[in-house]
Design goal:
By secondary structure, the protein is α/β, with parallel strands linked by helices. It contains 20 helices and ten strands. It has two domains: 405 residues, 7-stranded beta/alpha barrel, CATH 3.20.110.10; 116 residues, Up-down Bundle (immunoglobulin/albumin-binding domain-like), CATH 1.20.1430.10. Helices cover 49% and strands 9% of the residues.
Length: 535
């Protein structure tokens, strides 16, 4: 079919693991993402496959998210989180006669019980294998990404640093899914021209940039972003269509803001008495979201009304019809303008569906079902689109620097609150790159013990630097409640790097390497030469 559309979801959680405490609010970022986004999404995708409904979805699971999904302690804690939420649901059902929300509470309990059964019995706690199953049946395309969601354009002054992010991310993908990726998700959709050569050298065929990265470039085409362009290095660049993505994403006009949908902020974890929530919160004195919400979105300061699932489903039906019809009309208009085989890329953070927008997974399901009955366009993936037109001569492209952050560039990560981080990480990246180069040049003269010791130091410094470079910390530093944790995590990784640096020329580390390695068992088998000289 000549007209097509891709829905691309990017799922990411920064590396957070605190086994030293029984309950960590930041660890719940992972657990809530699994319960509210990944389990509903997998349940829906498997159900559509079993019913024979054709669909194609593109999904990126960030390397840190993959590492956390594989971690035994965190998998056990995800199950504990689910059981803790189920106990709260049971309490809510029992007090439903008082609150008036018994039916809604029962609905939550049934929903979470179903997800627990799937997580434990159907998928054995291994969501990576579940996604791989859908990949193997041709229903989803999985892409790789940078190791810790580092903002790659801001690292380009030390290209070895970008190389390490890309290589470590691809390595994690291969370990999880057993084959090389063809596509690569750029964290924050952030692109810089120098990335083209680097990605292509690492075996990547295509990536996605923001629409303005293609359309505002000196070398552009009227066909962008509805066909991909090809860089001089042979990397295929797809543009994220702003208009179609904004139909869902826009904070002002997007579908999730409809007053019939569930209000994300009206959560019992923020409103119920603290004593009532004590078992759920544990030793924490901090309120948090529970995922149990009873109100629909209030409009223009009006009083919130109780949530009505039937009313919300009607809104989903309307919005799915509108989205599918709009894409059909948009593609027909593009083809009538002379664009050959137009392709629309709609890309989103995955947690918009199910987590922020409770009905979002149902919306995706309806979109796929409605498209299955249409003959004018289909859903595919960027990789499949390119493979189906491999004989086509692509339009030359030279995208400019861009991101999907505020302002369309990199201001979010270079603000007054977080700009200090760039200098700190760059200085250590330069130091590590020099050390690795000198080490490689002089290895032949080293004893086996010294060689192995320095390899281990390089491996751990690389790991700590990668963890420091996560774009999440700079983003969270702009949010006052999250700033202390983000700054604390960043400074801890920088301090760990410096502690390792102090013992690189010694032969006895007094157990410090093992101590640092035990703090963050992520990418623990990372080769030491991720930071080898970049050419």
């Amino acid at each position: 079919m000549s007209r097509s559309c891709s829905i691309v979801l990017h799922a990411h959680v920064p590396w957070v693991r605190h086994p030293e405490v029984p309950h960590c609010l930041e660890e719940d970022w992972l657990h809530s993402a699994i319960l509210e986004t990944h389990l509903p999404l997998l349940e829906m995708l498997f159900r559509l496959r079993e019913e024979g409904v054709p669909y194609k979805l593109t999904l990126n699971l960030s390397p840190t998210l993959l590492a956390m999904m594989r971690d035994r302690i965190l998998k056990r804690r995800t199950l504990n989180y689910l059981d803790r939420t189920l106990r709260l649901c049971r309490d809510e059902v029992e007090r439903g006669d008082v609150t008036g929300f018994k039916k809604l509470a029962e609905g939550y309990e049934d929903r979470f019980l179903k997800f627990r059964e799937l997580f434990v019995d159907e998928w054995k706690g291994d969501l990576i294998r579940a996604y791989a199953d859908l990949r193997d049946s041709g229903h989803i395309e999985l892409t790789a990404s940078a190791a810790t969601h580092g903002l790659l354009p801001l690292m380009m002054r030390v290209p070895e640093s970008v190389q390490a992010q890309v290589r470590a991310g691809i390595r994690q993908y291969v370990q999880c899914f057993g084959r090389m990726p063809r596509g690569f998700w750029l964290p924050e959709c952030a692109y810089a021209p120098a990335l083209s050569q680097l990605l292509k050298q690492e075996g990547i065929d295509w990536t996605i940039v923001e629409e303005h990265g293609l359309t505002t470039a000196p070398q552009t085409s009227e066909d962008f972003p509805f066909v991909p362009g090809e860089t001089e290095n042979g990397l295929l660049i797809f543009g994220r269509d702003h208009d179609s993505s904004s139909e869902i994403w826009s904070a002002d006009e997007g579908y999730p803001g409809d007053g019939r949908y569930r209000d994300f902020m009206r959560d019992i974890g923020l409103e119920a008495p603290m004593e009532y929530l004590r078992d759920y919160l544990g030793n924490s004195e901090q309120r948090q979201f529970t995922g149990i919400k009873y109100y629909r979105s209030a409009q223009d300061g009006a009083q919130s009304e109780p949530y009505d699932p039937d009313l919300a489903s009607r809104a989903v039906e309307e919005h799915a019809n509108r989205f599918v019809a709009s894409r059909g009309a948009q593609l027909a208009a593009l083809e009538s303008e002379g664009i050959e085989s137009p392709h629309i890329v709609c890309a989103f953070d995955a947690d918009l569906f199910g987590h922020w927008w409770f009905e979002g997974t149902e919306f995706l399901e309806k979109v796929f079902r409605k498209t299955a009955d249409r003959s004018d366009f289909s859903f595919t993936s960027p990789g499949a689109y390119a493979a189906n037109q491999e004989e086509r001569e692509w339009i030359p492209a030279a995208p400019v620097s861009s991101s999907w952050g505020e302002g369309g560039y990199f201001e979010t990560w270079t603000s007054e609150e977080n700009n200090w981080l760039q200098g700190e990480t760059q200085e250590r990246a330069e130091r590590l790159a020099r050390f690795v180069r000198i080490f490689e040049e002089n290895r032949d003269g080293l004893s086996e013990g010294v060689d192995q010791h320095r390899q281990k130091c390089i491996q751990l410094m690389t790991q700590e630097l990668l963890l420091t470079q996560s774009s999440d910390w700079g983003f969270l530093m702009r949010n006052e409640p999250s700033r202390p944790y983000a700054e604390g995590r960043t400074r801890q990784h920088l301090e760990n790097f410096d502690r390792i640096w102090e013992i690189t020329t010694k032969t006895d580390d007094d157990g410090r390497l093992a101590e640092i390695e035990g703090e963050n068992p992520v990418f623990s088998d990372l080769p030491w030469n991720m930071f080898e000289p970049y050419s």
